[in-house]
Amino acid sequence: MTKLFVISGSSGVGKGTVIKEFLNKHPGFKLSVSCTTRRKREGEVHGENYFFLSPEEFKECISNDEFLEWAEFSGNYYGTKKSFVEECLQNGDNLILEIDTKGALNVKKLKPEAVLIFIVPPSLEELEARLRGRHTETEEAIQRRLASIKPELENSKQFDYQVVNDTVENAVKQLEAILL
Ligand code: 5GP
Q: Cβ atoms within 10 A of the Cβ of 132, count?
């Protein structure tokens, strides 16, 4: 049976790395590609990391009811297309959505069979250090992302599982225990 997994975690927690490592080891799982209005980071590819849309294009998709869920996060819009998810599920893929906690809880309402996983850092100090260390955001964007940590932790109380990302290897092992 096809399974739908939703993985969330505070900005900078390293969920991208953990998920990438998991996907390398388990090709039967597919990662959903979301739409966003945020600017492209160096090295990111349209259609691979995200579908990068203008705010106008994004709003057009909202009015056409094309999103399974969408949310405003840190001043930008992010959303998961219904068509993308349905296509994967019809193909029998195990699908992972990497989205924020608000989006995750919305998915759970629409698809109660979805399994919600929250990735936590070993400590908040470590999280801030990681967020600054990747040098992808301006100070203002970092501050906005730090401010999102509390509400994300609050929402995560409704999640099914928590995975601590102390080392990538450990986090992947915990993910395997849940997803396999
Ligand atoms: P980033 O800008 O660092 O790529 O992502 C910022 C936040 O947006 C992360 O928490 C990420 O999980 C979340 N996100 C990415 N795609 C989606 C989506 O389609 N829907 C929602 N609700 N959040 C998303």
A: 14
pLDDT at 92: 87
Task: Summarize the confidence of residues 143-172 as an average pLDDT.
Answer: 94
pTM as predicted: 0.92
- Going from the Cα of 71 to the center of ligand 1, the distance in angstroms, rounded, reads 8
Domains belonging to the chain, first-starting first, are: 4-179 (3.40.50.300)
DSSP, residue by residue, 106-145: HHHHH-TTPEEEEEE-S-HHHHHHHHHHT--S-HHHHHHH
Q: Which residues contact 124 (CB under 8 A, 6 or more apart)?
A: 149
152 Cβ closer than 6 Å to some ligand 1 atom: no
Instruction: Tell me the CA–centroid distance for residue 98 and ligand 1, in Å.
Output: 7
Could you tell me if the CB of 10 is within 6 A of ligand 1? no
Q: At a CB cut-off of 8 Å and minimum separation 6, what does 35 contact? A: 50, 51, 52, 53, 58, 61, 67, 70, 77, 78, 79, 80, 81
Query: Looking at the predicted structure, is the pLDDT value of residue 108 above 90?
Result: yes
Give residue 1's pLDDT: 59
Query: Residue 89's pLDDT is what?
Result: 86
Atom of ligand 1 nearest to the CA of 8: 12
